[in-house]
Amino acid sequence: FLHVPINQELIDKGYHHKVNPPEQRERLHALFRTYHVQAVLSGHVEVLFYKEEDGVRYYTLPGFFRSKNKSTAHWYGTYYDGSVADVFSLTMHYRREPGGPYNTVV
Hints:
With 106 residues, the chain is of the alpha+beta class.
C-alpha cells in the first residue's frame, strides 16, 4: 500500500504535485518486480486508474468521500473488498450520488 501513487501516466495527466517523483517510481518498481509483488494500491489523487507493468498491477483508487476534483467521476462512499490468495483480487463499491444505490466495479 502506498498513500501517493507512482504512476508516470498520472504525472503526464497533470497530477505531478500529487505523485511520487520518477526516481522514486523507478526504485520502487524495481523492488516490486524483484520480489514478485502482485498488486500495489494507492490513493491521494481521487481518481480510478489501473496499469499492469512487468507483472505488477498498480491500482490508484478514490477514497470514501467524493473527490473535490470536478473533472473526475463522482465516487461517494467508496469502499473495497480485496482478497490476497494465490492471485490478488479487488472489488470497488461506490455511489454516484450521496445516498444513492451502490454500484460495483471488479
